[in-house]
Amino acid sequence: MRLTGKKVIALVDDEFEDLELWYPVYRVREEGAEVHLAGLEKDKTYMGKYGVPAKAEYSWDELDAADYDGILVPGGWAPDKIRRYSAVLKLVQDFNAAKKPIGQICHAGWVLISAKILKGVTVTSTPGIRDDMENAGAIWKDEAVVTDGHIISARRPPDLPPYGKAFCDALAGE
């Protein structure tokens, strides 16, 4: 279990893309990492787009990037809500400053855009936010997974297997 002892935050809010949250969470857990779900409200249950629940164990305000090894941002419509909170943007900025793995898939790129960390970074996302990514200074590629340093990005649910592996590899330092 190459990720034993590692800790990861997974951000949640209503209308997250169910697979884009749960697949990476389970993938990281099966390699031994501890994953904490975090939302605006601690102990609140958030519902995915397709009805799969996710209960926040922590609120964004009580987390510190220094206590974690990586962060996962799921897609869906949740990123458009999540990016409006300064606590989330600070977390993402702190992970970026520390060069710790940041995983984002589909519409999750909106959170990284709002955190202002994409200038000169090569990424992918759902094609629907390509213009947003490029306008934020990112170099956008139409590939299943793009890893640029500590930022791991993927397009959509069919890309989850290589995305999960790439994120785990980054957490393992490989």
Question: How are the SSEs placed, and which strands pair?
Answer:
Blueprint: E1 7-11, H1 18-30, E2 34-39, E3 45-47, E4 53-55, E5 58-59, E6 70-73, H2 78-82, H3 86-97, E7 102-105, H4 109-114, E8 122-123, H5 130-135, E9 139-140, E10 145-148, E11 151-154, H6 160-172
Parallel strand pairs: 1-2, 1-6, 2-5, 6-7, 7-11, 8-9
Antiparallel strand pairs: 3-4, 10-11
Helix pairs in contact: 1-6
Concise summary:
This protein has helices at residues 18-30, 78-82, 86-97, 109-114, 130-135, 160-172; strands at 7-11, 34-39, 45-47, 53-55, 58-59, 70-73, 102-105, 122-123, 139-140, 145-148, 151-154. With 174 residues, the protein is an alpha/beta fold.
